[in-house]
Structure prediction request, 143 residues.
Amino acid sequence: LVAASLFNGRKPTLFGYHAVCLVFAFLYHIIQRVVVVLIGTLSIATTSSLVYPLKRIRRKRVFLALGAYLGFMLVYEAFLTGISIRKTAYFEMDVYCYVKNDKEHKLHAAINVADNISYCIQIALPILIVMVSCLISINSITR
Prediction:
């Protein structure tokens, strides 16, 4: 999609269709956050393996936690899109569709605060987890 727009002089091409733009923006918005959580999960698993080498990591729990997180994200974004606060827009400079909140919606201020808090938690928490995991791993390796 992005390549087609780039070859077409940064014109929307397929992004010109509302449904395509909505799906792309929806997935792009969710995938950014899920990747950070996956890195945090991988860091926890690696640290756990170093600290407790004989203890087996239960995949079922890991996948259950990741599934619950992904489910939460999908429901949250679908809800905001469903109440029509989420709008999509094509950004010609970066050649992609993005999600923005409708400033005229009556819940705009509350949703903006919730989005900012949610974003900070979803980005900052995994970063802190990775940092702590790194320190624990370094301590375990250098003993």
